[in-house]
Amino acid sequence: MWEYTDKTKEHFLNPRNVGVIDDADAVGEVGSLACGDALTLYLKLDVDKRIVDAKFQTFGCASAIASSSALTEMLKGKTLDEAKEITNEHIADFLGGLPKEKMHCSVMGRDALEKAISCYLGDEEKKIEGEIVCECFGVTDVEIQRAVTENHLKTIEDVTDYVKAGGGCGNCHDRIQEIIDKYTGVTPVEIKVTPRLTNIQKIRLIEETLEREIKPGLKKDGGDIELVDVDGHRVFVRMRGSCATCQKSQITLKNYVESKLRELVTPELIVEEVR
Can you give the pLDDT at residue 193? Predict the structure, then answer.
């Protein structure tokens, strides 16, 4: 599972400022349910343009909730000019750090804040800048460029962690790499790109390997296995049949199941049993 700081856990389990400000002076909405994360940020300001209240509603993971909660706490008491200086790194630092795979949650908070400020100032809603690079998550080349330059990203995996681009079908990987090369000043000949599985490809390959290579062997002895979840490189499974009560199930899990998955999917996988 992800390694969260105590402060991140606290803001997830006991989020601050959840809700709606009915007479909000500014509202910023980002993300979409289709992409898995969505955030609405509400701000109330006084006559001096100082934020006196901030609330949020979010649909997302623990990091999304914690990042949104942290952002509202950071905003209270700040002037609009001071709020403009808050970056996604500031949000992550406030929580004591976030897993790199979850940095996109802090980016979502930063983006919601920028939209809320634009709303307050009466700026016209910006049209989508640039061209869509990642069709799966609707991420443009401008958004990828910003993530690369602001956070000194070096790999496609880094970009996926910050803005989700490249985490779906994988068709955009070459274009993402071109953007990284351009804005890090590295020519393509200096980079050796190691193809990596997207999350969807990895899950499908794990399922196929379990069905084709692992289950038949277990069923010969009256056992079976069920895929429960995949979280990063961790694969959570449930042993069934005779495997569920066998004293040697952990040996089977590591020496057979994990070994096969590492051989046929990717060597980083760690298999864990859930009951």
Answer: 47
